[in-house]
């Protein structure tokens, strides 16, 4: 599974509608409204790099109200569960 984190700038008055439209796209697992210089963060989870292009370039970027995007591809995931397992000394 490939994960892409997409930073989305949207027209301010349309942020809720833009978020809902992006969340409805196949391949988008989550959309967060955030503070700061960007308006939304979308998580795209797909099987191939070509699918990232399809989801982001062909669909997400064309959602009415999307002004700009910046896509980051994740190459390694860390989670609390992974860290606990890595540092476990086997005492249960």
From TrEMBL:
GO terms for biological process: response to amino acid. GO terms for molecular function: sequence-specific DNA binding. It comes from the Bacteria. One of its GO terms (cellular component) is cytosol. It holds the Pfam family AsnC_trans_reg. Residues 7-76 form the Transcription regulator AsnC/Lrp ligand binding domain. This is Lrp/AsnC family transcriptional regulator. It comes from Nocardioides caeni.
């Amino acid at each position: 599974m490939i994960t892409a984190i997409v930073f989305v700038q949207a027209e301010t008055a349309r942020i809720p509608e833009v978020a809902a439209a992006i969340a409805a796209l196949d391949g988008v697992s989550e959309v967060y409204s955030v503070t700061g210089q960007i308006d939304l963060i979308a998580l795209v989870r797909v099987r191939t790099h070509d699918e990232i292009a399809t989801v982001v370039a062909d669909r997400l970027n064309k959602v009415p109200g999307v002004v700009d995007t910046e896509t980051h591809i994740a190459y390694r995931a860390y989670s609390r569960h992974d860290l606990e397992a890595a540092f476990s000394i086997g005492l249960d």
